[in-house]
Every structure is written in structure tokens, then in C-alpha cells.
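Protein fold
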Amino acid sequence: MTDIEKIMALAKEHYDKGEGDKALPFCHQAADAGNINALRMIGNIYRHGKGVDADIGAAISWYKKAIAAGDNDARYNLACVYGSDEAGEPDFVSSFRLFKECADAGDKDACFFVGHYYYNGMGTEQDYKKAFKWAEKSARTGDADAQYMVGLMYENGEGVRDDSYTAGKWMKKAAEQGHEQAQEWIDETFSGQLKFSTIEQLLLDLADEESATIPLPASEEDLEKCQQELIAKGFPSIPQGYLDFLRKCNGFTWGIWFFGTEPISGYGNYITHEGLVAANEYFAGLEHYDWLHHCLYIGEGCEKMFFYDPEKKLYRTWDYDAGLWDNYETFEAMFRDENDLGEDDAEPRKSMFELLEEAGQGDTEAMHDIGERYLSGESVYDKAIEWYEYAAFLGNADAARDLYMMYINGDGVPKDIEKAVYWDQHLIKHYPTPENQKHLDDHLAQGYGLAPSEYVKRYSGNDEEKALYWAEKAAWAINPSMIVEKIKGMDELPDEDGEGEPEDSDDVETLMEKNFEKPGQELYCEKCKTTNYIYNDMKPPYKCDNCGSLLEKEDELPDSENGEDDEDDSKIGRYFDCIKERILPSIDHEKLDLSYQTDMVYAKEILRRLHEAMVEVYGSDTLDANSGDDGFVLIPGMVRGMSNSEMCLAIFSLDLSSQGEHWETGFITEKGLLTQDKGGFTYYVPYNYYYTANIPCDIHVKFDNLPDELKTVFADYRRITNG
């Protein structure tokens, strides 16, 4: 223990006894040595009059000194002073500003006050949505006051949907911590209903509760028929606890629809046993839930899905808003949310080293967990987002939702609708709920949702930070495996506190050239201070376009330090190798250009070779989300300029897990395989594109309006016409 620590220990000993007068000399000694805790403690002594006369002016002065030294706790204390009448009339503007600074720095208690101030319009404009955001953030950390506030906002539909069920859940959490108002709300709302189980009593007490749904019991005939149909279709049979519920329906719900039931009050849309069978048939058709297809899907509502897991013999709920699983031994426990066995956290907490090792093997859950660790404690947002993006891009829906919420609300990052919509598009692949689809459609209608390469063009030259961000995402789309390779190559391991520097990001040029052949290089003229672009096929000597001075071209660098190509086991990498090594070198571009203008015979021959190479790599010409690398495929085809009708063979990058979303185009030219932003290559832009593969899931390209000059080119390839 250092001398200053010993001095502060003596100060705290006296402070805890209320002997502020005896603590002050030690505090001043430590404060003179630069100890910020001492500065705050002096402020506390004068504020609360511990062993000295209370002096709020002196307290404020010492708090400000501590704040200037970087003490966030002193900032919180001063916010409390300004928000009360301790110093006279409350200064809510200053109080709100200080609480907001604390909350932004990760202070969980301050989050509640920020929500409280937004809710009441204290020191800032009233804003229920922002109030809910900050209150919920605090409520999830266990703050009872915040839980009560969130419950009220759900009940009244203030800043969030009107949801009595979720209101009750939050009130229950607050009441369990001894929150008196929350307990009063429960007593007044239920009036003892939770003690009753007969449907007659519930009907009597809930006649005026609009959001309550009371299901009709199912007949024995319906239940038997339902069991037979489920088993015949290969689904799990109905467990006994759920059978008993359907047979008796001794309970009620708010906003939850259990399949196999018919509501006799309130509202609901899944009725009789047919709803249970139909729901499981629908669920079985969702590929992104294939890891849950062994379960019986029994209900949904209020941001949750309800299952029975026959392997674990547990009832399970998935809260897709909070991203949490809860487990219950009986249906009754799940129905009433009692005796929760907890989340799926029975395994020991993994170290960051273990998570990084799993992330390096492509485990997106581990990537997401690393991001979560960075948000806990000191809330290192930039690193959390980095790991969330790795996980989300490779298919982790929780990470995609986290990114959407952070960017749409400006939570820890500047608000950015373009980025929010981009990650919302990833989320919709895994959770295509009507609510998710609606807010995505609303944003798409406003012009958001462009491909990363389009954003690169938009921001190149005027906002390099954004151009770099979108160039990275464009590169990921072409070669998703580079994410895992980047993780494997990390030199420093993150520790439990989220410390350690992230590795440097690639610049825009590097990212775009990782998967497309570089058509040339920029040479700088020292004489006239201008930049010249020299294509690979140009012969020396090279002259400046502006002043005519001689330029010296740099030697080509090898693909790796030993001069050998790095191996790439991905299908995208293998197809690129086929194109660059076997097809591009043999193309006669003069003959190809003439073919575009005449009979298309030579162009058709090159397209056939590109198509055969694709089949060789993917094993088929019919492709779906499972064919490529995490849903991404490269396929050959042709573009046709919309303004000039000019045609060009091309390679397309599509995301088949997102209904064939187009990410990038590589044009086959005499200078190599170029993207439209290379060397000013925009001759065909804007364009329509067509390809040889058979992709039934693609909703973007329609072959029923194929131009006449291309019909013979694509006549030999199988496809499903998109109407």
C-alpha cells in the first residue's frame, strides 16, 4: 500500500464514522498529491455536513475540481445537487447535462435519471422514446426504480408499444426488489387474480381487460387428431403439461397466442389444433431456425417464442428482443413465469482467450460474446461494435440486432441510419417478423439500404472514414472468410476488461484490391505535383499527363512475402483462382469486343467456360444459401448498360441468404477483373445484370424480360423464371 493509499484509508475510516473534521486533513494531504477520490470526499463532507458545518458552495467547488481531474462519481454527485434544492432553486439543465455525461460514460445509475429527465421534460425537451431507451438500459441492470418506470411506460404506451403483459413483467421484477409502488400496481391490477385458476373467476375479474386473452379448452377429439397429425408429419408430440393446458386452459395471458387454442375474450388469431400443426409446418420451413427443429413450437407473442424441447425435457422461451433463453421444468411454470431455471449459462464462463480461439474457428456466438464483454464494465463501444460486426456479417442475428439498435438510437455511437439499415437487412434474414420487416421497408422507401459498393462511391473523396467503413463491408461480401482470417491473425488477445489495441484497419484501396486484380498504379509527378494513373498494359517510358515529365513505375510486389499466392480454401477463392489462372489469360479482348457488337458467339463461348468453372467449384448450377460461403456466391453472367445498351461479361457477388441481394460486380476487361470504381471504370453504369446459374430464391433479377440480343446467350442455361 502506497503512502497516499494509507492516508486515504485513514480519511475513509473517519469519514465512515461521521468524523469529517478529522478526515479533512488527510483528504487535503491526498488531494495535494493529486488523488481525485480525496477531492470528491471533501465535497461529500461539506455537502452532508459530516463533522463540519454543511457548506453546499464549498461542496460544489470541490466536486468541480474532482470533475476537472476526471472523476465521474463527482460529476454524478454534482448532478444530484443541481437536480435538488440543496443549492437553492434546482438547475435542471446543468443536472441533465451532467447525468447525460455520466450515462454516456457508462454509469448505470445515471441512465435512470437521464430517462427520468427526458420523461418529465426536466432540463431538456420531453421525449418519451429517449426516456424509454435510457430507463430500459438502467432497468436491465437491475435498478428497481427504472424497472417500475419501464413498466409504467409499457402500460401507457409512452415511447414504446402499449403492452400490458410486458408492463406486468417489469413491475414484478421491481416488486421483488421491494419497490412499494410496483407492488401497489400489482395489487391494484390483479386484485388477487393470480391466486385463482378457474376460468370462471378469471372471466369475472378480467371482463374489462382489453389486452387479456383467455383461451377455450380444446376438445379430446381435437387433441387426439392434433397428436396424430404432428407425429405423422415428423414433429414432436405434445408434452403432458401442454396437453393439460389445452384440455383445461386454467389461466390467462396478455398478448400471447398459444397454438391450439381459441380465445373467448380479448383477441387472438391461432385457433384450434390446426393452428398448432400449421405453426410447426411454418417453423420447420425457416432455415435459420434449423437448430431448433427438434423442438415443438407452441406459441409466440410479447417479443417471445415458446417451445418444448423433448431432448432436454424442458419448456423454453426465446426473448428475441433481449436475446435471452429461459428454461422451465413445467408448462405451468413457463406460463406464469415462475421458478425460472435461468438462462443457458450452466457452462463455466469462458475466458476471452477461449472465446478468441473459438472465434478464430468461425464461431459467431463467441464473436458476439467478445463484443458483449467489451460493453460490460467500462463499455468500450468501438471494440464491441467491431466484434458485433464480425458476428453479424457471418450470420449472428443477436449481433445484427445489437448493431441496429445502437446505430438507430445513437447508443454509444453517433446515430447513423445507413449503418442501422445495413445491419437491419442482416437481421431480417434470421427474424423476418412483421415488425422487423415494417421498419426495414420504411427505411428502404426513404432511399436507404444501398449496397456497400454504392456507399463507397458516394463517400470516396469527401468522407474517407465512411468510404473506408463501406469498402470493408464490400470486401467482406466478396470474401467473407477474410473475417475469420483477420481474427486468426490478431497479435494481441483481448483481456477480461476489454483492453488491448485493435489491429489497424485496411485502407480503402487495400480492401478493394484484395479480391480484384489491380489494373495499374498511381504515380506522382514531383515537378507539377499531380497524380497520374498508369495501367498495367502501358509501355514505358511513362510521362506525366500534365507536364510531360518522365515517371518511374514501381515494381510489382509479390502476392505474399515469399512470392507465392496465399492459399484460399473458400469456394469464392477457388472460383477467383479459376477465373484468373485459366480463363482471363486466354481471352482475346478484340475478338470479344467485336462479338458484343455482332453475333455474340465468342462472348457466349467465354460465358460457357466461366459457367463450367462455377459448376466445378460449387458442384451444381442450381445454387441456394447453403451452396456458398456463409450464403455468398460468385457467379458469371453479363451486364447491359441501361443508358447505352453496351454489354460486358461480368462476375457477380450475391447473398443467397438474403434472396439474392447483389453486392458487387467485377467487369471482365482487357485490364483485368475490375469493379466500377477502379480507374474511373463506370462505362456500363447504371446497368441490368443477368447470370447463368439457377437461383430460385433470387427476387431481384427477372429473366422474363430478357433483352432479345441476350436470349440466345442464356438459352442453354436452366433457371426458374422470376415473375
Remarks:
- The chain has 30 helices and 17 strands.
- The mean pLDDT is 76.
- Residues 193-336 form a domain with the SMI1/KNR4-like fold (CATH 3.40.1580.10).
- The radius of gyration is 32 Å.
